[in-house]
Amino acid sequence: MTDRGDVRVPERDPGLQPERTRLAWRRTTLSCTVAAVLAARAALQEGTGAVAVVACALCLLLWLGFLGVAHRRMTDLAATNRPSRLPARAAATAALCTMALAVCATAMVF
Amino acid sequence: MSNFVQSLRLWFAPERIRDEGDTPDYRFSLANERTFLAWLRTALALIGGGFAVDQFLPDLRWGWRIGLALALLAAGVLSSLRAVNHWVRCERAMRRGEDLPVSRFPTVLSLAVAVVALAMVVVVLFGWEG
């Protein structure tokens, strides 16, 4: 974020790169929410048997996992003017959550 | 293919990226991260589309519905795999000062989406009676 006060003038990045990256994470979280809501809807449409509830819970868990990664990264981005690069583990976790959602979807389609 | 295995190893041992080359300007890393996120959104949109086809077109013939949904879901999985792989490879190329990797994936994905869209047109015109 920005530094307040006159003592230390922040070296502002004219491209607002950390800001834009944070917003990109937000957009992605939103996309993930939409996908997760559709997944939950698909799971509960079949009825409220044990399988449906477990599938719904799994989708919720994947969504929370994605949200956790995004939240941590957004906090990191907001903390400094020169954020470090995205940890590879965070990238892999985000992608894995996405893929697991697709696998859940495949199971539910049949 | 060995290139792919190498990048796969890098996904799970991120500290190995740090050993190579110089740290690039943070802005380039952030731009790479945004590209990664854009691919991830593409993947999520495709997966959402797969769910949507399955749920909102119940009158569709079973084969068409399953086929379209699976095509979209498979494209989503491939996109998210590609997102991580491309991100790792770009990161490494920037550290080594090499050219950024190019790939045919965007073309392939565009063609796949075009095929799905055409299939949708055909379905809407002829395939409704279930």
TrEMBL record, chain B:
Keywords linked to the UniProt accession: Cell membrane, Membrane, Transmembrane, Transmembrane helix
DUF202 domain segment(s): 27-92
Membrane-spanning ranges: 36-56, 62-84, 105-128
Taxonomy, superkingdom: Bacteria
Topology versus the membrane: Multi-pass membrane protein
Alphabetical list of InterPro entries matching this protein: DUF202, IM_YidH-like
Compartments (UniProt record): Cell membrane
A Pfam family: DUF202
Main location: membrane
Protein name: DUF202 domain-containing protein
